[in-house]
Amino acid sequence: MIAGFGFQNSVTEKSFNDLKSKFMLKYNVNLVATTSEKSKTKAFVDFARKNNFKIICVSHKDLIGIETITHSDKSKRYKDIDCFCEAVALIAAGENAKIIQTREISDDRLATIAIAEYE
User: Fold this and answer.
1) Residue 89: how many CB atoms within 10 A of its CB?
2) pLDDT of amino acid 76
3) pLDDT digits (tens, 9 = 90+) for 87-106
C-alpha cells in the first residue's frame, strides 16, 4: 500500500503522525508519496525517515487530468487537480492502482492522505 500526501508549507510531523495512526497502520502502508516539489519539506522528510518509509516522488504535471473519487475545491483552485493526495497515490502506485482509502484530513487541517493499492 502507498499513501499519497498533500500538505501546506506549515505542516508539522504531528500532522503526518495523526494520519499515520488513523489510516496508515490500518492498511500496513510502507511507502509514502508526494510531488517532487513537496518531497523535500522538512516535516515530511523527518516523518518518513523516523518511520522507515520510502518516499516516492511524482511530477506535478503527471497529476493533471487524473480522475479521483474525491473532489476538493482547494486542490482544484490551487493545483488544478480534483484531489491532490488521491492523484499522488494513484500515480505513485502505478498502472492498475486503485484508491482504498479516499482523502482524509489531519486534525490540524494541514495535511491530507489517500491510500492506494498497487499490484
Assistant:
1) 38
2) 66
3) 999 999 999 999 999 999 99
Angstrom distances, CA of residue 61 to CA of 73, 78, 104: 19, 14, 23
| Interacting residues of 71 by C-beta distance below 8 A, sequence separation 6+ | 82, 83
In sequence order, the 6+-apart residues with CB closer than 8 A to the CB of 60 are: 35, 36, 37, 79
Give whole-number Cα distances, 65 to 20, 72, 74, 84, 109, in Å. Answer: 27, 14, 16, 11, 25
Place of cell 497502520: 25
Amino acid identity of residue 108, one-letter, is D
For 62-76, the pLDDT digits (tens) are 998 888 998 877 776
Q: How many angstroms separate the CA atoms of 27 and 67, rounded?
A: 22
What is the residue whose three cell numbers read 505542516? 11
- Chain position carrying cell 513537496: 38
Q: Would you call 9 helix, strand, or coil by DSSP?
A: coil
Element spanning 98, H or E: strand 98-105
pTM over 0.70: yes
